[in-house]
Amino acid sequence: MMQCLPHTDVNSLLKWSEELKQQKECRDSVGKYFHLIEGYNYKNQILPIMNKLMEDDITCKFSLLGRRHGGKSKHSFKVLDLDSVIRDAIWKKFPEVSMANIEKTIGDYLRQASQRIFRKQSTNNVLKEIPDDRSEDVSP
Predict the structure, then answer these.
(1) Using H for helix, E for strand and C for coil, what is the string for 28-73?
(2) From the CB of residue 82, how many other CB atoms can be counted at a distance below 10 Å?
(3) N or C: which end of the chain has fewer CB within 10 A?
(4) Cβ within 8 Å of residue 40, ≥6 positions away
(5) What does the pLDDT profile of the chain (140 residues) look like in tens digits?
(6) φ, ψ (nearest 5 deg) of residue 107
(7) Cα–chain-centroid distance for residue 125?
């Protein structure tokens, strides 16, 4: 079940979430996997969980509640029911955290996906422009 992570397309994520809804043992194993991801607070545990769950190209197609306006639509992350798997994993380490704080952190992560994609592309473009001196022949 974990070998398909991170998801690289929306359809595989939707299918996977449906399987988790129907198969309690798979849902439990995913929850245990998410629980093992380290974080010194709940936010620092949610971020790597989301990174493991799906790539930013897919993340930018979701919002916490979904939306449809201006010709753009986003899938609802809550409909996937993955927020409850994440919540359960977080509550095992940080039981004092409210569901509202978990949802806010997930929503913020989803909202910032396009910025992460832009930063990665900018970094890759800069790295392409830097000459690689190591490839030159340094024979005496």
Answers:
(1) HHHHHHHHHCCCCCHHHHHHHHHHHHECHHHHCCEECCCEEECCEE
(2) 24
(3) C
(4) none
(5) 556 778 888 888 889 899 888 998 988 999 999 989 888 899 999 999 999 999 888 888 888 888 766 667 888 888 888 888 999 999 999 999 999 999 999 999 998 888 888 877 776 565 566 666 655 555 55
(6) -60, -45
(7) 24
pTM: 0.78
Residues 42, 50, 56: CA angle, nearest 5 degrees: 140
Token digits of residue 23 = 């198969």
Q: At what angle do helices 82-93 and 99-111 cross, to 10 degrees?
A: 120
Residue with tokens 């806010």: 104
Position 4: which residue type? C
Residue 76's SS3 state is strand
Q: Residue 65's pLDDT is what? A: 86
Written as six digits, the tokens of 31 are: 């929850």
How many angstroms separate the CA atoms of 66 and 63, rounded? Answer: 5
DSSP 37: S
Beta-strand relationship, 72-76 and 62-63: parallel
Backbone angles phi, psi at 62, to 5 degrees: -125, 150
- DSSP-derived letter for residue 63 is E
